[in-house]
Amino acid sequence: MAIGAFQAAAKKVVEASKPVAQAPKVSAPAVQSPPPRPPSFQEVARPPIVLTPPARGPDPVAILQQQGVARAQRYLETLGGHPLTAEEQRPFHEGVGPGNWCGMFASKALNLNHDARVGLASTSRALGFFTEPGSGRQLFILEGTDTQGTQWTAWNATQNGLPQERYTPENLPIRAGDVVIFDDGYLGGTGHIGLVESYNPPMLTTIEGNVNGGQIERHTYDLSDPAVAAEIDGFGRPALSDFETPSVPPPRFNRIPTPI
């Protein structure tokens, strides 16, 4: 055998005896568990939701009514005790003409606007005024009264779909500044209107104009007496829009000089 062929065969034997290189091992990626499932809404403990109603401020109508009662008290202090002269009566029917000024006295004390003052110029007008649909006004009627006024009010309520709730002296929800409307037979006259000064059931205290010969007086009534209740058509409460809106001057601003 030639030397060259021998060396080639030996080289093949040596190469065949070498270990075969192994491919590097690649580790399989670790299997990750899925993230924990969030609890359902049923599983979450939630505090109860408490809805707190917004705080209510004072009733603006009640405030205006209290101011009106204070005016009526001042009228009583300064003009009470004698029949008013034509000149003294003039402020109470200003803008609506002279006449029976009991309702005009109440509307003047309450500082009502012109349309509202016309609405209180008589008892028949007052009943329609306080039961006008959509006006926001209220009329409270005593239980068991059956005057011409309450009969008309019941008819008017039926025609216009108005509530017809009646009240006992114990639950009558009137307050200072409401208007009391007396029946046409009150004191043998043609009806009368007064201003509620206070009500402590069943005792009603009013300040009234044009009584006993044209005077301003304070009167007290026991509404638990059927004879007294029978003389009252109802009690009216004006709406906020019935009051005069005081004119507020626009704010004044200090003029700042423009730098030159």
Core attributes:
7-stranded mixed β-sheet, alpha+beta, 8 helices, endopeptidase fold (from Nostoc punctiforme), 260 residues
Mind explaining what this structure looks like?
It contains eight helices and seven strands; from the N terminus they run ααααααβαβββββαβ. The longest helix has 20 residues. By secondary structure, the protein is of the alpha+beta class. It has a seven-stranded mixed sheet. It has a domain of 179 residues: endopeptidase fold (from Nostoc punctiforme) (Alpha-Beta Complex).
Indicate the mean pLDDT: 80
Element string (H = helix, E = strand): HHHHHHEHEEEEEHE
Tally of alpha and pi helices: 8
End-to-end separation in angstroms reads: 121 Å
- Tell me how many strands there are: 7
Classified in CATH, the superfamily of the domain at 60-238 is endopeptidase domain like (from Nostoc punctiforme)
Which residues form runs of ≥5 with pLDDT under 50? 247-260
CATH C-level label of the domain at 60-238: Alpha Beta
Q: Please give the share of residues in helix.
A: 25-40%
User: In the CATH hierarchy, what is the architecture of the domain at 60-238 at level 2?
Assistant: Alpha-Beta Complex
By secondary-structure content and strand pairing, the structural class works out as alpha+beta
The Cα radius of gyration reads 45 Å
Global outline: elongated
- The CATH topology of the domain at 60-238 is given as endopeptidase fold (from Nostoc punctiforme)
